[in-house]
Amino acid sequence: MTDYKKKYYDYLKSSKWKNLRNLILGKRGRVCERCSKDLSNEKADLHHKTYENVFNEKEEDLEILCRPCHEKEHKPEKAIRFIKSNFDKYFIEKQENYSKGIETRRKKRDKKLLERRVKRQKEYNKKKKKSKPRPNLAVFDFGKYAGLSVSKVLRMEGGIEYCKRIRDNPDIDWSSDKRKLILRYLLKL
Predict the structure, then answer these.
(1) Where in the chain are the domains?
(2) What mean pLDDT, rounded, does the chain reach?
(3) What angle (nearest 5°) sits at the alpha carbon of residue 44, between those of residues 38 and 45?
(4) For position 93, what pLDDT does the model report?
(5) 68, 90, 131, 151: most buried, per Cβ within 10 A?
(6) Distance between CA 29 and CA 63 in Å, rounded?
(7) Looking at the predicted structure, is the pLDDT value of residue 60 above 50?
(8) What pLDDT is recorded for position 121?
(9) If DSSP codes are grouped into helix, strand and coil, which group holds residue 16?
(10) How many other C-beta atoms are found inside a 10 Å radius of the C-beta of residue 168?
(11) DSSP secondary structure letters along 27-57
């Protein structure tokens, strides 16, 4: 850590900063100045508009922000977390395409995951010397995403033939994004 950063972090822990922070929060109220969100029950962040006067700030140099707005200010590319709720809101409701980089990364990750599960299942079947191997975990995933019950998947034999049957089943609606991801993988079989 550089000397400046260390000095800055020490300053943020000092009583001078805490007094200034409390003074500004008291004067302006605990409301985000970007989105007008009430922060009376949440932590309010004080953001430096400029870092020229960091150790001797004026009130105009600081603004009160909620955590998401402060995050957007410092890390705009990470502001949208890819948790399910935000992911659905951002990509599916707005019907925007995945960015090329995210799509490629997800494809690689999902393919590796499926390959690892299939390999693990094959090793398990070999170790247990199963005459009729049970369907591998990847097949359960395909069934789940295709909207089939686990019991129906259990009644079917596993392997690539099962995946091809799911892919070619005319009764399955492949319009949802999760199912499109699975379909893309199935089309490679």
Answers:
(1) 3-79, 99-187
(2) 66
(3) 135
(4) 40
(5) 68
(6) 11
(7) yes
(8) 67
(9) helix
(10) 9
(11) HH-SB-TTT--B-TTSPPEEEES-STTGGG-
Between strands 45-48 and 62-65, the pairing is: antiparallel
Q: Which residue has the higher pLDDT, 20 or 174?
A: 20
Give one word for 29, left, alpha or beta, with left for phi > 0 and alpha for psi -120 to 50: left
Report the pLDDT value the prediction gives residue 98, as an integer from 0 to 100: 45
Contact 42, 66 (CB under 8 A): yes
171 membership: H or E segment, kind and range: none
Tokens (6 digits) for 186: 């199935």
By three-state DSSP, how is residue 63 classified?
strand
CA distances from 132 to 142, 155, 183 (A): 20, 12, 27
Written as one letter, the residue type at 41 is: N
Whether 76 shows a pLDDT value over 60: the answer reads no
- In this prediction, residues 124-141 reach a mean pLDDT of 59
Question: How far are the Cα atoms of 68, 106, 139, 141 from residue 93, in angstroms, in the given order?
Answer: 20, 19, 29, 24
Rg of the chain, C-alpha, whole Å: 26
